Amino acid sequence: MRLVPWLLAPWLLSGCLMADPTPRNPAPAGGSVSSSSETIPASASSVAGFGAALNRMRAQAGLEGLREDGHLKRAAQAFAEDMAANGYHSHHGRDGSTVVERARRAGCGGRGYVAENIAWGQDSVQDTFAGWSASAGHRANMLGRNYGVYGLGQAGGMWVLVVADGC
Fold it and tell me: What is the model's pTM?
C-alpha cells in the first residue's frame, strides 16, 4: 500500500494553469536550476519562507524576484478556502471562474499575465514548494519571466499560488 501515495502524486500535484496572452521562455537560455537546493526553513512563516525560497530559485535562474501582493494573496486564500470548504480541487471555481477572473475580482488589474499553481494534501509549505519545484509545469509558472508579484493561500490542505505581471 506504500505505492498509493506515489500513484496519487501526479494527481495531487497536477494543478497547474497558465493564462498568458503570449508564450514565454521560463528560464534563460543555457540556464538550469536545481530544485533540490531550495529549502524553506521550518522556523520561517509560511508566506515569508515561501517567498524567500521562490526568489532564491528565480535568482538562480537569472530572474528578478517577485514581491508579495495583497490582491493576489486574497484571491489565492479565498480560492484555497473555497476548495477546502466544498471538497474540490480544480482550476475552475464552483462558479466557473478562472484564475484571471478571480485575480481581477480581488482587485488585480495587470496586463493579463496570470498563472496559478494548486496542490492538495501537502502537510507544509516546504512540501508544497518542493512538489511544485519538481513539476515542470508548476516550476515554469514559478520561473515565468513576465511575472512580478505573487500571492499564496492555504486552507485545509489546499494550496494556491497565483503569480501575475502586476496588480
Answer: 0.76
Interatomic CA distance for residues 16 and 115, integer angstroms: 8
Measured CA to CA, the distance from residue 83 to residue 69 in angstroms comes to 21
> What is the distance of C-alpha 128 from the center of its chain?
9
Judge contact between 75 and 138, C-beta under 8 A. no
Rounded Cα distance between 102 and 16, Å, is 15
Residues 74-115: tens digit of each pLDDT = 999 999 999 999 999 999 999 999 999 999 999 998 777 999
Residue pointed to by grid coordinates 519538481: 134
Q: How many CA atoms lie within 13 A of 165 on its CB side?
A: 14
Quickly count: other Cβ atoms within 10 Å of residue 151's Cβ: 27
Amino acid at site 26: P
